[in-house]
Amino acid sequence: MPRNEYQPFLATVKEVIRHTDIEYTFRLAYEGPVKPGQFFEVSIPKFGEAPISVSGIEPGLIDLTIRRVGRVTNELFEHYADRKLFLRGPYGNGFNVDDYRGRELVVIAGGTGVSPVRGLVEHFANHPEEVRGLTLVAGFKSPQDILFYNDFSRWATKINLILTVDAGEGPAHCQVGLVTEHIPQLKIQDASNAAAIVVGPPVMMRFAIQGLLAAGFAEHNIWISQERKMCCGIGKCGHCRINDVYVCLNGPVFNYTQGKTLVD
Amino acid sequence: MGYRLTKEACDGVLQKLSLNHTLFAPKRFTGGGPFSGTDLIRYGKIASADEIVLDAKSAHSFKEALLPITETLFYFTEEQMKEPDPPAQGVLVFLRSCDLHAVRRLDEIYLRNGAEDYYYKRIREKTRFALIGCPTAFDTCFCVDMVANRSDNYDFSIEQDENANYLIDCRAADWAALFEAAASQTLAVEPSFVAATPTRVGIPALLDAGVAAAAMWDQYDGRCIKCGRCNFSCPTCTCYTMQDLFYTDNGKAGERRRVWASCMVDGFTDVAGGGCYRPKNGQRMRFKTLHKVFDYKQRFGYQMCVGCGRCDDVCPEYISFARIVNRLEEALREVKSDAAE
Question: For FRET with B263, which of A30, A65, B16, B185 sits at 20 to 30 Å CA-CA?
Fold first, then answer.
């Protein structure tokens, strides 16, 4: 018989980092292969499962940054924060670090869209020699919504960081305005060869990509990560299918040349 | 090998097969139809040959034999998680050629698209198929155009001759002796296959995803009531949703189930925080249609729809899927001419 892919495993919660009232990062013990951009199904018996991006990878540890928005995550925040969590995964393709090595890289992320790229940004922030410059444009709705503020403070000296909120007065390093407003001002030496990653709400992604193309980025140098409802993570339940791809198997990371052809 | 069996002899064989298999076949539920005085034909457990409905199409397909409408994946107690016991015995499914072609589509998703599905595999391995001979198509069938009208991958075929005896073509080596011993005559039997259907469909040879922009889909915003009956009656629809619950009389125990899901029904694409893809009914109709006659083929190399026509039989709004497919050619022209302007 095949392995029962639906059987979750227990992961010990090592630390809970409270970003906002409704957004926590759960730091979990995990040994095994995993890439930034992949996701796990957080599996709470009797409540359900929710697909959550890996927001950080360290030896023996993974981070899952979770927003409290539904039945599963409510139960998680109420009763599991100091215990153990059932997980399945990792699923999905994740980001391929080699796609960005040796290039100028711009990462544009909105809200919880920072989660899937955080591991990648951390990697290049710690290995700046691997890229020819890294710019992170991270946008949040309001100062209260900012996730990973400590990371931004750390990264501010290592990478070109543009932290922005749509409205309100942000903390240090923070600007006001939409992420798309910052694209024309990007200091890129050779836009036609630079790489970009865009992750966030659908509207933000659409306009950010338009901005990048207008700034001279080539379609094949842009990658996106898609959020969909993934019940199974293994190509069965059908909820994440778009055209002939299954986001859980073929994504969630897509090159834009493919991503632009996907019509929900 | 081919055999002729009397009804009594056929019942004897079925009885022997039922020692190791649940016999699952289209059955007549008298008075169970949607209108007064009509019968319902749908799948159920049978014990004798005359219970198998050979002359009418079932409203729903056989697929619940392999994919129960609600299937428990785990039982939970406080700290324990237990899989349901595997099925005690196999299933022998009686189905027509279109449905036997649908089995390949179910296998494609559950055995080959990503990791093998544990629950599907354990019942699939114990499932055998008896082909119901299909001499004439029903009104809404279009299996010939979908190339699903002929099959040879059955364990045995079954249909009646003019004297109500049963004609069997047995291809399963391990069951040949069973039929041989019961047969009143050994003869060459070729099961009946539909050669022409009253409903015809033509899928444009140069269909492409751009047809999503056509105006025709907007019509279904109003006409379709997103009830999902087309999906649930379809032998090739495979989607499900996870569903956890706890027992009301003991909240410490509960289970995880998967239940059939429909891309036409609200909630299918909802993501946490309120996002929803394809909110309009017409977009859902486009999504479903293109999966059946385009997207699936792009991925797996052959069409998903098998032309059983059940979606047309069950639609409460009298929407014809066959008609939608036949409108694609015109929709494609419309999209191309819009692009040219």
Answer: A65
Tell me whether residues B115 and A5 touch, CB distance under 8 A. Answer: yes
Enclosing domain of residue B312? 209-239+260-340
In this structure, are A132 and A150 located in the same domain?
A: yes
B145-to-B303, B313, B326 alpha-carbon distances in Å? 11, 18, 12
Nearest to B212 among A47, A246, A263 (CB): A263
CATH code where residue A149 lies: 3.40.50.80
- Residue A36 counted as domain residue: yes
Q: Is residue A1 part of a domain?
A: no
Please give, rounded to a whole number of angstroms, the shortest distance from the CA of A59 to a CA of chain B: 27
Our CA-based measurement puts residue B257 at a distance from the nearest CA of chain A, in whole angstroms, of 9
Q: A20 vs B292, which has greater pLDDT?
A: B292
Do the domain assignments include residue A230? yes
How many structural domains are present in chain B?
A: 2
Residue A144's pLDDT is 86
Both A105 and A228 in one domain: the answer is yes
Which residue from B73, B121, B283 is facing A6, i.e. has the nearest CB? B73
Q: How high is the pLDDT of residue B306?
A: 97
Question: Which residues constitute the domain of residue A48?
Answer: 9-91
Interface test with B, best of A43, A93, A237, A261 (most B CBs within 10 A): A237
Option in A45, A244, A245 nearest B76 (CB): A45
pLDDT at residue B165, rounded to an integer: 96
The answer to whether residues B46 and B144 belong to one domain is yes
On whether the pTM is more than 0.80, the answer is: yes
Tell me, yes or no, whether A202 lies in a domain. Answer: yes
ipTM of the predicted assembly exceeds 0.90: yes
Q: Are residues B115 and B6 in the same domain?
A: yes
Record: contact B240-A231, CB cut-off 8 A? yes
Which 3-state string (H, E, C) describes chain A? CCCCCCCCEEEEEEEEEECCCCEEEEEEECCCCCCCCCEEEEEECCCEEEEEEEEEEECCEEEEEEECCCHHHHHHHHHCCCCEEEEEEEECCCCCHHHCCCCCEEEEEEHHHHHHHHHHHHHHHHCHHHCCCEEEEEEECCHHHCCCHHHHHHHCCCCEEEEEECCCCCCCCEEECCHHHHCCCCCCCCHHHCEEEEECCHHHHHHHHHHHHHCCCCHHHEEEECCCCCCCCCCCCCCCEECCEEHHHHCCEEEHHHHCCCCC
Task: Give me the pLDDT at residue A104, please.
Answer: 94
- Set of chain A residues whose Cβ sits within 8 Å of the Cβ of B243: 48
Task: Establish if B247 belongs to a structural domain.
Answer: no
In chain B, which residues have their Cβ closer than 8 Å to the Cβ of A261?
209
Same domain, A190 and A224: yes
- CATH number of residue A37's parent domain: 2.40.30.10
- Average pLDDT estimate for A242-262: 95
Task: Identify the segments of chain B with pLDDT beneath 50.
Answer: none
**Per-residue model confidence as pLDDT tens digits over B266-278:** 999 988 777 889 9
- The residue out of A65, A91, A117 marking a domain boundary is A91
Same domain assignment for residues A209 and A228:
yes
pLDDT score at A81? 64
Last residue of a domain, one of A60, A91, A122: A91
Same domain, B148 and B219: no
Q: Is the pLDDT at A174 greater than 90, yes or no?
A: no
